[in-house]
Design goal:
Elements: E1 8-17, E2 20-30, E3 35-39, H1 46-54, E4 61-66, E5 69-70, E6 78-81, H2 93-98, H3 109-122, H4 138-150, E7 156-160, H5 168-185, E8 188-192, H6 196-202, E9 205-210, E10 213-219, H7 231-245
Helix pairs in contact: 3-4, 6-7
Amino acid sequence: MEQGGSGLHVQNISKRFGTVQVLEELELSVNQGEFISIVGRSGCGKSTFLRLLAGLDEPTSGEIVLNNKKMQGINPEIRVMFQESRLLPWLTVVENVAIGLNSNRSLTPADRTKQAAEMLDKVGLKGRENEWPHVLSGGQKQRVSLARALISRPQLLLLDEPLGALDAFTRLEMHQLIYNLWEEQQFTAFLVTHDVSEAISLADRLLLLENGNVALDQEITLKRPRKRDDRLVSELEKQVIDRVMKVH
């Protein structure tokens, strides 16, 4: 894939909440257009790290450099997709997606609606534009959330366990959808997940966080598409799980 998206450098970031040290002098460099998965035990700092990347929180020390500029606060080039769809119930589906264009004040209402409808088509929800969020299934709501996150063509997409509440079949469909849109838009992506198989299926690199730092940085060179029952996928999954389970 031709490299696009954002180049990112995490330089010695630490994050402390009171006396609790969550991240400690973490360093990481990410190439433009890379897909990074982050795994680790609960409480290892995965979501905290993602919040720092999103600009929703600030590191206690260190800095994050995005495209050669130090990050400060919310960046319109960065979008986050959470485990909950976070759709506004008083807006229609197409209106929820159009929220992702709020930073572009040059668009007319008609342009916003047109682009939102086109994005809904890309995520497989053509014809559902004027429905209300409450009539959608969990998977459909996450498709709307993904459309809203990507409609502005961000350089960096942060995925905080967005598929955790979905059934197995819907998760597989979402894997393919996320992968297809990543190939098309060439954004840089971070996926936080508890599912090691999911991490391997989607990513170029897998990071294991442990004791507030990167304990494993594993490049994944397996040919795509990757199936869970593939021998090489299973072997890599076992290696990562064994590594995690040795952490005490």
